[in-house]
Amino acid sequence: MGFGDFNYVVTELDQQEGFRMGQMVGHVIADLNDRFTFFGEVSLTAKDDKYSVEVERALVRYDFADEFKLSLGRFHTPIGYWNAAFHHGSWLQTSVARPEMIKFGSRFIPTHFVGVMAEGSMPSSSLGLGYKVGIGNGRAENVARAGDAGDINDHRAWVARVQSRPISIVGLEVGATFYSDQLLAPDLTDTRERIYSVHAAFDRDSPEILAEYAHVTHDPVGGSGGLPGSDGWYVQVGYRLWGALSSVKPYVRVEQVIIPEGEEIFAPLNLNYDGVVLGIRYDPGVFLALRLEYRSEQFEALQRTNSLYAQASFVLSGS
Amino acid sequence: MKGMNIVRTMASVLVLVAAAGPMVSTVHAQSDGGEAVAIVVHPDVTIDDDNLTLAELRSIFLAERQHWGDRSRITLLVRAAIAPERDLILTEIYGMSEDRYRQY
Q1: pLDDT (tens digit, 9 = 90+) per residue, A1-15?
Q2: What distances in angstroms separate CA A44 from CA A6, A47, A52, A99, A100, one per listed residue?
């Protein structure tokens, strides 16, 4: 199975306009035996002078039972909703791109995680409770990257997530995540990173309501703590129309990333963001989506910019 | 919550069968009207009272539950898109459109 997308961009941002090749994604799934499964996801992303190849996810999973599955490899960090629900392949999501706080390559939330992960369901007949607990390398020296070649320090990152998917309301999920790691600040100070995240999603077609909030703190190890943290959030609402227009799904998203002045890790990275996204998704076929999306964005204290994106995204399915 | 009776077959997988008329009584599937759905499983699978609740079915079809009680893996088969039973399953169990189901 694979995914791909082609784009056309008109923007006031300081970026190249015109046609853009998007990301091509391939998946491979293999049952190694009755209990072991391998999953791999590889992407090809168009850059200015080449295609970059990335192993996005690669993991081996052992299924003990529904209550306990153990995986080893490279994951999408299970922080919040989007990063755990939508993976590479923009066809999977309603909008052209991810929210700023959780976009691939984001420095606000670590989107990838290398390590070991336990997950499963918890005894609850109606609430559909589940968990994910992982320990891994955490961020690399480049905070947008996972520690693929090892940890940059002796302090492993860990993540714990609980969610509820009530079985009587298909599509509803509420959850909370805690993530902890240790980083090296630009002044070489050992810094403790903690991420607190909550989400609520009603992931249906009519309506689709996705909301997520994350609070990130960076405190020097051994310090008194209590430094102001950074916030990121988004709310996205979509609604697939009915009757002859059932292939059409308008959507809107508002989002922000707010970094306190002088924040040790994030402030030098200029991550402040305020965006409004309006779009229409049209599905002319089962495995093809066409989108037209308008964005009004403000990065840091710069002037607000307008952009228009047109995208064709598709899935290559064996079925 | 309404339950679903189980029909055992030599098939090594969980399959879905829908039928109308005499077939319903033959498989003892419950019905709200003229159409009913039966869930078919391998005879070796142990299910309490040969009955699955709608909630249990939903958790299986949504892949929230992937193993039977004896830890054997559930292999799920759903009829092709042209089958009317599929529409029934998408509506009653998944609560999704065909497009949404494929996306899921």
Answers
A1: 899 999 999 999 988
A2: 13, 9, 6, 21, 21
Q: Which residue does chain A place closest to B100, by CA atoms?
A: A205
Q: Indicate the pTM of the whole model.
A: 0.87
> Cα–Cα distance between B50 and B38 in angstroms, integer?
12
Distance CA A179, CA A84 (A): 14
- A170 near B CB under 8 A: yes
Per-residue confidence band for B34, with pLDDT thresholds at 50, 70 and 90: low
Indicate the residue of B55, B102, B103 with minimum beta-carbon distance to A126: B55
Q: N- to C-terminal Cα distance for chain A?
A: 9
Considering only CB atoms, B99 lies closest to which of A168, A170, A286, namely: A286
Q: What distance in Å separates the CA atoms of residue A47 and residue A49, rounded to the nearest whole number? A: 6
Could you tell me which of A273, A270, A263, A271 has the C-alpha nearest to residue A296? A273
pLDDT tens per residue, range A190-231: 899 999 999 999 988 889 999 999 999 999 988 887 788 999
* Unique residue bearing structure tokens 């998203």: A253
**Beta-bridge mates of residue A216:** A195, A230
Q: Which residues between 18 and 37 in chain A have a beta carbon less than 8 angstroms from any beta carbon of chain B?
A: 34
